[in-house]
Amino acid sequence: xxxxxxxxxxxxxxxxxIGFAGGFDFLGKHYADNQIEIVxxxxxxxxxxxxxxxxxxxxxxxxxxxxxKSDEIPYFDxxxxxxxxxxxxxxxxxxxxxxxKDEKGTLFFEMxxxxxAHQPKAFFAENVKGILSANNKEAFPLIIEEFEKAxxxxxYKLCVATKYGVPQKRERVFIVGIRKDLNFTFEFPEEPxxxxxxxxxxxxxxxxxxxEKYYFSERAVQGMLNSKxxxxxxxxxAQDIEQPSNTVSSHLAKVSLNSTxxxxxxxxxxxxxxxxxxxxxxxxPENYELLGSEGAQYRMLxxxxxxxxxxxxxxxxxxxxxNSDAVAKQHxxxxxFGQLDLFExx
Length: 346
What we know:
Elements: E1 4-9, H1 15-21, E2 24-26, E3 29-31, E4 36-42, H2 46-56, E5 78-81, H3 108-118, E6 122-128, H4 134-137, H5 139-149, E7 152-160, E8 171-179, H6 218-226, E9 237-238, E10 262-266, E11 269-271, H7 275-281, H8 294-303, H9 307-345
Parallel strand pairs: 1-4, 1-5, 5-6, 9-10
Antiparallel strand pairs: 2-3, 6-8, 7-8, 10-11
Helix pairs in contact: 1-9
């Protein structure tokens, strides 16, 4: 089977790419190999690039995507990109969400530029739920329109990680485009988990024998309890380990008990997640190697797409493209036989 080639923009540590590649295990389940090849990756975050290279054997281009000419990117079948989401996040309240008016919010135009130049069979893009309402709901229709003008039939869906077996209540907007001449529009597969009772709980991924450095000091706990919101703990959110975790973010290294990030309450003591626990919450396989400072690890993991959630979408997309190729080849054969019949009849 010929492998489909992937060009990965804003690649980070490769959560998207693990999902597209498949061939990994998570919590005792195997996710099949999708027979793809990563031919290009790009990200400006050097710490994430080091983890990508270590785990994929591909050295990412660390230049700003605006500096990269389209013809510098090798041939590929599918373009992927979780374009920067800080401008669209509902948590980005200071400064106010600027969406497409912010410089980072316009980076999706770079994806469009590459799509127009290369015309791959398909693309996958991702962003936070807040993109749907950014700029008074004006940003998202513009983004979809630009992707369509690049020559693609576009579909999108708000996907919830818990419904794919990920122990996290992460919501992300997935956008998939199919080149118009392929004559079909991508339909998202049904989520494999429909019942809340079947969600993967946080307790399934927790580590034992936690280092003392992950626990908050008594002074920090008292400061939280003395605050106005402390008694209700409605800011620093202590998690119910029988349920999936709240969404993890890129700044877990700086989490405090008065922040909006999830924390744990164990035996009367509060602590933050370890990097490996965050990797598991994001559904990274155990053999994924985390490198560099813990701050860099938290940042990469918090920005990543959960590989397991990505796998379900990627497996369907790859399958659709292979079926489309098979249909096209069948049509070519039928046409060639038809021409041969006409020649013989004459």
